[in-house]
Design a protein that fits this description.
Elements: E1 4-9, H1 20-39, E2 43-50, H2 55-64, H3 68-85, E3 92-95, H4 102-118, E4 122-132, E5 137-138, E6 144-147, E7 155-157, E8 174-178, E9 187-196, H5 202-210, H6 218-230, E10 235-236, E11 238-239, E12 258-259, H7 261-279, H8 288-291, E13 298-303, H9 307-321, E14 329-333, E15 336-340, E16 343-345, H10 360-364, H11 369-378, E17 386-389, H12 390-413, H13 430-451, H14 455-476, H15 486-506, H16 512-521
Parallel strand pairs: 1-2, 1-13, 2-3, 13-14, 15-17
Antiparallel strand pairs: 4-5, 4-9, 6-7, 6-8, 9-10, 11-12, 15-16
Helix pairs in contact: 2-3, 4-7, 5-6, 6-9, 11-12, 12-14, 13-14, 13-15, 14-15, 15-16
């Protein structure tokens, strides 16, 4: 029976467009993993959707004179289109406040909150909170900016230091100011909130994390275990804002309060799974076979700024609630910056020109999505931050994809003596058979790297085999024996065609469009391949017409404004 997997990508806030940093962090590696698992024959659900609740959406609505619903629906649809353009193979792309999902998501989130509350893991505290006198409203974390009290050299929001990832208290910010015009210094007033007693889960969280040593990325484990050693503070799971899920308690202090967006967002993974089960003709309770069965591994893909939530707070919520299993893996990538004219800078939602290819929407208007998938995997920030460099993008496209992969396919499939059919391989040499064996080894090696979430290393193996294919045809020189030794020439070409078939398998998780084009040129059905060494195509098998596999780019093609 196929093994069952549940894979999630972090829910992006539906208040802005997607840029290359988003894709490299939580979405492309997840898609590679899912495509590989499916090619291996496993049963997979790939869950994603937009994070529509909370402060970020409310602020965007205030800044644009729209309603929060208008903001989140607009960007939910744009993000969904961007992901589709990049070939992300989601089974569902929901939205926590989209009309077709909000009712189920609200109910499941409120039930989750009540179960934790009924077990005594929340404590209600009257607490001080920053208040904007000009707007006459309390200021939840994202409504406040100031200097981080821990690193003391970085301006950040009042929930988490953007530099170190550490959880902070807005009241501890140095020189806090409201993010609402006229950006005044807030005052302190009293309010009531429900806090999750994270300290109660320090020991089980530590034991759970330590059990992942050797299988999770050290950056995730080291960060999470370091936070536990410092001691986990109680964390407020309610907020004084209007846009969100009402706190489901019969308590006067709960009136007008909503669930913290980081409480309900990961529950979106669960509610979207339930919604998908209904969409496929089942019952919403069918989601339990994915979320409550220890035989079904759950893998979360996130960016580094979400580590504290997915490796600590969400697992603590699951432990407190008690009905759903913990994730099997949390795969976090670090940030991708943007290099412009030699200058390295953080990708900014406000400073990047509108027509820059750093925005997925703009990139897709002009360029091949697989070229971007290739580049973002090649520079994947798996262990350190990396930079998107437009000149480097063009160079890698031309010097790696075109020169190694595209050139090999073109020089073989345009060989005139093929006459559109696979030739006889009866005169294959030991050298040819060794080359075919190297293709099978590459498939095995790439699979092992993907299973260990080493996507850069996996792609390196793919391209190493593509270069080996180029070397093989260069050594065999079928054009030299075409007239005086046709069987030898045909055997060399048949071996090369078999190599292309191996490449069609190998590139599929990384560049599904390229894999599709390879299969079309090989005269194969338009369907995903199986993750195994392919059998040689039969002599006389009709080939499809040769085509350009990867377009070459001119220098400066991706320069902003081009």
């Amino acid at each position: 029976m196929p093994k069952r997997h549940l894979v999630t990508s972090a829910l992006p806030y539906s208040n802005n467009r997607l840029h290359v940093g988003h894709v490299a962090g939580a979405y492309l590696p997840a898609d590679i993993y899912v495509r590989y698992l499916r090619a291996r024959g496993d049963e997979v659900l790939f869950i994603c959707g937009s994070d529509d609740n909370g402060v970020a959406i409310e602020i965007s609505a205030l800044q644009t004179a729209q309603t929060p619903q208008e903001v989140c629906t607009f960007y939910n649809q744009r993000q969904k289109a961007d992901f589709a353009g990049l070939g992300m193979a989601f089974d569902i792309y929901g939205g926590t406040h989209q009309p077709q999902y909000v009712k189920l998501h609200n109910r499941m989130s409120q039930e989750f909150f009540r179960r934790i509350h009924d077990k005594g893991h929340f404590v209600k505290r009257r607490t001080r909170q920053l208040y904007d006198g000009h707007h006459q409203r309390f200021l939840p974390d994202r409504y406040v900016r100031g200097t981080c009290p821990l690193c003391r050299d970085h301006e950040t929001y009042g929930d988490q230091c953007e530099k170190t990832g550490a959880v902070i208290d807005a009241l501890a910010l140095i020189k806090p100011r409201s993010t609402l015009p006229p950006y005044a210094a807030p005052e302190v007033r009293e309010t009531a909130h429900w806090y999750l007693r994270l300290n109660e889960f320090e020991r089980p969280l530590r034991e759970w994390l330590e059990s992942k040593q050797g299988s999770w990325r050290p950056s995730v484990l080291n960060f999470a275990l370091g936070q536990i050693r410092q001691g986990l503070p109680e964390r407020a799971m309610t907020r004084d804002i209007s846009w969100g899920i009402p706190v489901p308690l019969d308590d006067p202090d709960a009136a007008g309060k909503v669930l913290y967006v980081w409480f309900d967002a990961p529950i979106g993974y669960v509610s979207f799974t339930a919604a998908l089960c209904v969409q496929r003709g089942g019952d919403e309770q069918d989601y339990r076979q994915w979320w409550c069965d220890p035989a079904t591994p759950i893998t979360h893909f996130i960016g580094e700024d979400n580590t504290v939530f997915h490796a600590l707070i969400w697992p603590a919520m699951l432990m407190a609630e008690g009905q759903h299993q913990l994730p099997s893996a949390v795969v976090a990538n670090q940030f991708v910056n943007f290099r412009v004219g030699g200058e390295l800078r953080k990708i900014s939602k406000s400073e990047t020109p509108q027509d820059s290819p750093v925005w997925i929407e703009e990139y897709l208007k002009h360029f091949d999505p697989d070229a971007l998938r290739y580049y973002l995997t090649a520079i994947a920030p798996e262990t350190a931050r990396t930079a998107f460099d437009t000149d480097d993008f063009v160079a890698r496209n031309n010097n790696e994809l075109v020169a190694a992969l595209g050139n090999f396919v073109n020089r073989v499939l345009t060989f005139k003596s093929l006459e559109g059919r696979v030739p006889s391989r009866s005169a294959q040499t030991d050298f040819d058979r060794q080359h075919v064996a190297r293709g099978a080894e590459a498939i095995e090696k790439v699979g092992r790297h993907i299973e260990a979430h080493r996507y850069k290393a996996a792609l390196d193996e793919v391209m190493a085999f593509a270069r080996l294919c180029n070397e093989h045809v260069g050594i065999r020189e079928p054009w030299k024996t075409r007239k005086d030794n046709p069987p030898d020439s045909f055997a060399a070409l048949a071996t090369c065609i078999h190599g292309i078939h191996h490449l069609a398998v190998l590139v599929h998780p990384f560049m599904p469009g390229v894999a599709q084009r390879l299969r079309a040129m090989l005269g194969l059905p338009d369907e995903p391949p199986r993750w195994q060494a392919p059998a040689p195509l039969a002599e006389g098998h009709p080939l499809g017409p040769p085509a350009i596999l990867i377009p070459k780019l001119e220098p400066g093609a991706l320069t902003a404004g081009a």
